[in-house]
Amino acid sequence: MRAPGGRLRWAAASVSAVALLLGGCTSSEDPAPSPTSDPSGSASGGEQVPLRSAVGTVSGRLKPKLSEQAATRVGTAVDRWFQAAYLSGDYPRGDFGTAFPGFTDGASKDARKDRTLLTNASIGGDVETVTADLRQVKVDLLAADQKPVGATARFRLVFTTTGTYAKEVTVQGRMFLTANRAGAWHIFGYDVTRASK
Amino acid sequence: MRALKLTALLAVLAVTMLVVPNSSVSPAQSLLVKVQRASGVDVSPDVVWIMAIGSDARPGQDMSHTRGDALQLIGINTRTGAAADIGVPRDSWVSIEGHGYDKINASLYYGGPQLMARSIANLIGIEPDYVVVTGFKGLQKMVNGIGGITVDNPVAFTDSALKPEGFKAGKIRLRGYDAMAFSRIRHNLLRGDFDRSANQQRTLIGILKQIRSRADRPGFMEAGVRSVIENMDTDLSPVELFRIAQAIARVDPRKVTHCVVQGGIGNIGGASVVLPDVAMARRFGDQARKDATLGPC
Lengths: 197, 297
Description:
The structure holds two protein chains of two kinds.
Chain A: E1 9-13, E2 34-35, E3 51-59, H1 64-87, H2 105-113, H3 115-118, E4 129-144, E5 147-162, E6 168-179, E7 185-196
Chain B: E1 2-4, H1 8-19, E2 35-41, E3 47-55, E4 68-77, E5 83-87, E6 93-96, E7 100-103, H2 106-124, E8 130-134, H3 136-145, E9 149-153, E10 157-159, E11 163-167, E12 170-174, H4 176-184, H5 192-214, H6 220-231, E13 232-234, H7 238-249, E14 256-260, E15 263-268, E16 271-276, H8 278-288
Parallel strand pairs in B: 3-8, 5-14
Antiparallel strand pairs in B: 1-2, 3-4, 4-5, 6-7, 9-12, 10-11, 15-16
Helix pairs in contact in B: 3-4, 4-5, 6-7
């Protein structure tokens, strides 16, 4: 139904139409991630490996410098979640109430329902330390009017826990983000898998 | 949240490696890893309604003010991944605000997307949040762009003009032209406009399945949205388009329910029309309004 207070939005597709989510070309292809500055604090296990963020594909016109800047910002936004949900905090840890910084309200609500995957909530009480082994984010960008407006962050986080629950945990998948007019990135969706061994 | 199970092959390999005798004692080299998955997309409202119109516009015509050939009201539940598709025969004889009674597809000609949305709301009881209009060529390009689609065709049929060799019954693979023809043909279908509307729904489901299977390819969603930005006449912002696209890609084809509004055939002013079963249309609307799920048609 129509959004409260909203008006009907419409779109008429011409020939290349809603060629929707597809066929279009992209201008950049998966360079190897390179380390970026790491503003985050240390994990509970001590010093962290650096965050590695890189530009993946770029759809639409965007200067390389702006692409790199956007990838860094998106990487940082995702890393804030890495820190808040898994890496930081005093373990054994029971409070994950602030695990979703930068998430939209709706995404945060969804994420809380999926907290056993999207945080360490299910194991926090059995963990003494958490040490990051890999923090990697590749960013596919959507540009409009030569500005980045949307992004898919393909990420991989690997960390090792000690304590009763001593395992290597891999969390990976995609985060979906949009930028507001001020250039701040917010996570509005996710597709995440988690495995431990 | 859904758990992914390891493939049978991996399990067999792992078990085999564990039980085959080794010449020396050593730790097992195999692991059995449980992988779990969670996904969600924040789009407001939770259930988004999109009116998809297949326009019969010819090259050079304004698609937002022609007659719609295909009319499908699609609801997407961004929380559950469910979707409902309510098909409306294009010749449905309804009251159009400010224009008296006419075929519902004339709403687009008279008043553009806004009036079409109101006509659909008057019939079904749900006013779409978005209206998307595509042309024949647009559909073909889209289907080709995603590598073709598979549809489950219940009855074989032909059309001397659009598809002389016809479509076989069963699961068939369609490229762009065939998807367009499959969605347009009605003369040789037993129930004409009603069966055609059902075929349009089969095409949409085929498209959804194909998009979902490719959505996790790097840059796929961004490239698709860029194409929309560059080729569509729309008042949606790129941010809105990107969010909606991600919501569409989350639809689980197994949770798609679809029905076509039925009715009688009449003749008004020498024109063949469909006299829609308004009570049925309202029932569909009432069923799907909150969660984008239809019951039995």
